[in-house]
Amino acid sequence: MYILAIITGQVRLRKKAFANPEDALRHGGLQFHREDPYVERCRRAHINDLENILPFLFLGAIYSMIGPSLPVARLHFMVFFLARVLHSVAYLFALRAPTRSLAYIVAQIPCVSMALQILVAVAAYA
């Protein structure tokens, strides 16, 4: 997620496509206050990471508190991590469909699994 923020900023500088007029003025003039398709692709990839990684971090923290098996927890975290990396790469380099969609689905599997295990653990106290 952090790497995508850096990539987006670097692409903005390289393409001279700034979102804010003050940034454009600093880097050459108001003509650079514009949109660029690749900058927008990087920005969308970053937003997509935010929409998916933040809920995962919340689920992962709660899941860790219910005392899961360490190898199973590692598997959940590794599958999510690898799938999200693949998703980001597929987004940035516009890889053929359905690469990005499959990566998204694979990343959701550990999220659903953790959510279900959290619900089962909470239901045991009800």
- What's the alpha carbon Rg, rounded to whole Å? 19 Å
Number of helices: 5
Amino-to-carboxy terminus distance: 37 Å
Helix content: over 70%
What is the molecular shape? elongated
> Largest sheet, described in full?
none
Which runs of at least 5 residues are low in confidence (pLDDT < 50)? Answer: none
Question: For the residues shown, what is the average pLDDT?
Answer: 95
Oligomer kind? single chain
Number of strands: 0
Strand percentage lies at under 5%
* Structural class designation: mainly alpha
Strand/helix succession:
HHHHH
Task: Note down, in words, how this protein is organized.
It contains 5 helices and no strands. With 126 residues, the chain is mainly alpha-helical. α3 runs antiparallel to α4 and α3 runs parallel beside α5.
Keywords:
126 residues, mainly alpha, 5 helices, 0% strand, elongated, lipid metabolism, oxidoreductase
What's a quick, concise take on this entry?
Keywords: Cytoplasm, Fatty acid biosynthesis, Fatty acid metabolism, Isomerase, Lipid biosynthesis, Lipid metabolism, Membrane, Oxidoreductase, Prostaglandin biosynthesis, Prostaglandin metabolism, Transferase, Transmembrane, Transmembrane helix. With about 130 residues, this protein is an all-alpha fold. It contains five helices and no strands.
